[in-house]
Amino acid sequence: MIAAQITPQDRQLPLVVINPNSTVAVTDGIDAAMEPFRQVPDSPEIHCFTLAEGPPGVESQQHVEQVVSPLLSLIEQHQGYASAFVIACYSDPGLHAAREVSAAPVFGIAECGLQTALLLGDRFGVISIKQTSIPRHMRMVRALGMESRCAGDRAIDLSVEELSDKNRTYARMRQVGAELRDRDSADVLVMGCAGMARYRDHLSAELSIPIVEPTQAAVALALGLSRLPWFRKIG
Amino acid sequence: MIAAQITPQDRQLPLVVINPNSTVAVTDGIDAAMEPFRQVPDSPEIHCFTLAEGPPGVESQQHVEQVVSPLLSLIEQHQGYASAFVIACYSDPGLHAAREVSAAPVFGIAECGLQTALLLGDRFGVISIKQTSIPRHMRMVRALGMESRCAGDRAIDLSVEELSDKNRTYARMRQVGAELRDRDSADVLVMGCAGMARYRDHLSAELSIPIVEPTQAAVALALGLSRLPWFRKIG
Amino acid sequence: MIAAQITPQDRQLPLVVINPNSTVAVTDGIDAAMEPFRQVPDSPEIHCFTLAEGPPGVESQQHVEQVVSPLLSLIEQHQGYASAFVIACYSDPGLHAAREVSAAPVFGIAECGLQTALLLGDRFGVISIKQTSIPRHMRMVRALGMESRCAGDRAIDLSVEELSDKNRTYARMRQVGAELRDRDSADVLVMGCAGMARYRDHLSAELSIPIVEPTQAAVALALGLSRLPWFRKIG
Amino acid sequence: MIAAQITPQDRQLPLVVINPNSTVAVTDGIDAAMEPFRQVPDSPEIHCFTLAEGPPGVESQQHVEQVVSPLLSLIEQHQGYASAFVIACYSDPGLHAAREVSAAPVFGIAECGLQTALLLGDRFGVISIKQTSIPRHMRMVRALGMESRCAGDRAIDLSVEELSDKNRTYARMRQVGAELRDRDSADVLVMGCAGMARYRDHLSAELSIPIVEPTQAAVALALGLSRLPWFRKIG
Amino acid sequence: MIAAQITPQDRQLPLVVINPNSTVAVTDGIDAAMEPFRQVPDSPEIHCFTLAEGPPGVESQQHVEQVVSPLLSLIEQHQGYASAFVIACYSDPGLHAAREVSAAPVFGIAECGLQTALLLGDRFGVISIKQTSIPRHMRMVRALGMESRCAGDRAIDLSVEELSDKNRTYARMRQVGAELRDRDSADVLVMGCAGMARYRDHLSAELSIPIVEPTQAAVALALGLSRLPWFRKIG
Amino acid sequence: MIAAQITPQDRQLPLVVINPNSTVAVTDGIDAAMEPFRQVPDSPEIHCFTLAEGPPGVESQQHVEQVVSPLLSLIEQHQGYASAFVIACYSDPGLHAAREVSAAPVFGIAECGLQTALLLGDRFGVISIKQTSIPRHMRMVRALGMESRCAGDRAIDLSVEELSDKNRTYARMRQVGAELRDRDSADVLVMGCAGMARYRDHLSAELSIPIVEPTQAAVALALGLSRLPWFRKIG
């Protein structure tokens, strides 16, 4: 088969993944996590964007709100150039508004990460960064109607400085993950942040529990579902 | 790029879709519905199997139970030859047992169809064939924890003879779909049977509502998620 | 008693009600609905603001998102001058972010309207303007954890032009309200829009069912709860 | 403005708060907790009654049942003299019957305390006196449809003698409150008894968590909502 | 086997069924409905009592409350003479208090009728007498945690006079039952009143749906479970 | 009364209890647990069967699936000779299929055990053998719609060898039961296995909590409900 023979109908447009915070290192981590999808020949390209207008991290409801407008602009600008969009922040900022503005389907990593967890286990636990994010996550879990399958959401609750210490961060994730598993009876975990991908394999092996990296989960769903003409289009 | 250069790690094993009833025409319909996935160059092959030991249609809990054993045998026999399995019956027979026996991930079309519906709308309605299947479906919806997003499940309730009349079948689907939309407030529909795919486009256009064809939904999820090494494997 | 003797501790700061759309007529209607509270001697003043930056009406998730930033600015500007804020739009835009930025408590008319309905009846029905708003409302109802007491949400679904015809609007509200009561078994209704106040009394009398005007409900809760030093302040 | 000019329509009738147990000290504590409302000039009077026929404390379902009849009598006797009634016992005894007999609105401190908690946090924990009261509380939480926002209900479970030791009582409340916060993930607490008001400020400060004193919450709602002619009256 | 050889341990004490309203005709109907249990040789005796202090019918929350005290007295008086008590009113008045006062187990016909319905179908519908009773029933359904299996509760809403016309009563029950089955998707019905037993067989046959007569259901459970020493006794 | 005078209509057919695993010692334990029912004169006989085709224990979803076919055969063979069937495995294998094939009612010990627990307490905890069974149990709890009354499900998780040590087994059950009671707030426990009956009395006394032995519970319900002609028969 020769690539040049592939017509536009056959070949998907690139998938656009948007990191709504302005920290390029987080985008780089997301980009690295796309590797399994890129090993596939002729797979659609995956482009990872940093939202320059975003805060360094999305840590409050205010942060969630302030990224929506530039995020929607970015999505509008890429209409026709993307087969799908993935919003790579565990608060799924602007998800429903983005679905209004975009002809291509839009996926949120929280919604997709949680759906993927439900395929892997019975009750999920979420490892969050900040204690203050948990109410926001729980509103989302209930809005999604998934509360009867939520074992808990617990935070590592480290400061920005402490988070720069990878060993300490990992140690807290292991501790919180074990609590979710043993105390709260979770049998699958979800990483409650797009920037935790690097810890996934080791943590899953040490805790002997499946762990969902939500950006990968969302991209997987996006790659599959965006093949279907009827996904997000009536008729 | 030259196909011969693709190493086994790069190239996915085929996806195996199993129709647990013995009606080859249903399998043929499923096979035809795989077309959107096959248009993609170098996409994994999709093999559709008919379970010879199954009943002509899965219409009762007894039918659900009796297909499990041959279904598990078929899955066990294909270990190592499939990247993922899709059980193409809206009762998801043997799904959790299949996950125990299979190293490759296993997807049920009801679970995946419903998850896909949740990405397209707020409350789903299910169009079923038989009135007597609805309690079975509702047990599944509650087991999945999705009841707060279920608008309703209504049956076209035609006899086998009547089902052979495509116009009549379609007319009942339109009627039931409109009831789910208008009376029960569904804003997305799921076809509650693997054999309804042919009616999807026309019905969605006429009712102006997104409609999920569940085998396509399950294959989409399977193609995407089976790329991820951690999906169904700890560590 | 002489007003001048009232010390600041005794006298509450004004309550600020914000209409997040830019239609002054809606704000005027809200202002008129404040009458019962103003009849009380020495009651705190109630100031109704129009959000100039808002759309003429909040009819989509995009509208919800776009009003948040100017709404938060307005709230921040009035810190110290308001005893409480009421966001007078049935989508409660920016409510949780506003609670982060404001030292004074912030009330949303949807949350308060629904809570008030739960004090008046067993299962509430919501009369919405637009069909497309219903999924947004349902996400909110589930996020609030009130879904088991929600009988339904139905829209009058009139165009802007049709809405200017008050008789027609009322007729549709009566029709939809009767459906919520008779078909969906609601025993209390909530007006799903800040601009429906004028119809409340007549509609409640004709349908023989209690009806909550949500801005009045929110102001009532705000006037009461903002008296309590511990409301929104720890310790 | 001169008080004599205030017509009956302008001026609210007194609010009647009923302590359904016969312990006058509890009523005195409730009365003291009304202070924030009394600082407001021209605010309606708040009269606190002790139900002489009640038990020393409402500690069982039998106690709940036995106070209903004298409570309803008291409410009936005060028709026309009260703008609203508050039943100041965390089991909300007779609440729905009282709403049948009373033209003025009736508020229960459990229902109002829980609603207020939902405005302050995402998941509430209840500090109860007796372990045996918890099933009764949980029936109420579910009847209210609030179970998805209930983090837990834990008892200090002290004997009457031990309860007279304020230091010991406070220490147990702090311990139980910390468990609700840390183990059960509550982010707001509700005092599960009308007699705990004195401990609220200190406990909230020490545990760094908002705490609802339910009688104050109910009175706040009553003062606000009873202004609205349509509250509890159709049309 | 000779009856005289049966020791007290072998032979159960009588079962006491209490009709909490004062209408002897209702008690007679309940007594007639006990026939299937009496056909069994050596079955415990079933004694049906009328609560003289009750209202002619329990039609409001006030009625529910006012029967509790005499009901508890009656139960206390029969301690040691009854193997179990059944409260034969669909509002289960005083059930939890009765469990506190009684050493023998106490069963409510609503709780038992609903549990029995869950063994016969997937979603139950309740046929009630009065529209005003439905909120009371729904509070109970939610308190029992059964709301996800409740299809609906609809009232025949006839006056006392109309109820004396058996044909008219039956016609309304058939109409309401058909609505519950067809519109609300119930696949099992529960009679929401102890006085409807006479209509059960005919209605079930005409509507082709299982129907639970709740007093019979409660007595069935009582006869079975009261055999178990551990039922209601720890250790 | 003379036994010879009892006509077939008066006398119930035997009750058939089926142990779906092949371990005769488990069936013997079940048979011993039937003693309280056999002490009643003229009570229906209770026959306990071992399913020879079953695995030594039902410990996985595969085991659940593989016992269904022989279980249904056994039930079909006994049509006309049994008044009711009880499936004595806590996974309720084949329950809904059995209800399709059997004219006599069929009871599952999990469904009946849980219903009985709801009559004895507010929130139940389940003591399971295997950690891996918990997701299966939770799917069942949600399918039954009982999740809001489930405090938790915890496993003793001993190997087959360890289970043969009765002291060790009991010690783990006490430990797990205490966790369910104290940490998860269960106020009634259910034994999550048909083979735990021997430990019930001692464990309930030591933990001071009611404990449901589910096979006894199911037989109690079966004995009572199978008296009613309408149970499982329409009309």
What is the beta-strand fraction of chain A?
5-15%
Cα separation of the termini of chain A: 32 Å
Using the 3D structure, state the CATH architecture of the largest domain in chain A. 3-Layer(aba) Sandwich
Instruction: Tell me which oligomeric state these chains represent.
Output: homohexamer
Q: Tell me about the biggest sheet of chain A? A: 4 strands, parallel
What is the tally of helical segments of chain A? 10
What fold name stands as the CATH topology of the largest domain in chain A?
Rossmann fold
Strand order of the largest sheet of chain A: 2-1-3-4
The residue-averaged pLDDT of chain A reads 93
SSE arrangement:
The structure is a homohexamer of 235-residue chains.
Chain A: E1 15-19, H1 24-33, H2 35-38, E2 46-50, H3 61-77, E3 84-87, H4 95-101, E4 106-108, H5 109-120, E5 124-128, H6 134-143, E6 150-155, H7 160-163, H8 166-182, E7 188-191, H9 200-207, E8 211-212, H10 214-225
Parallel strand pairs in A: 1-2, 1-3, 3-4, 5-6, 5-7, 7-8
Helix pairs in contact in A: 5-10
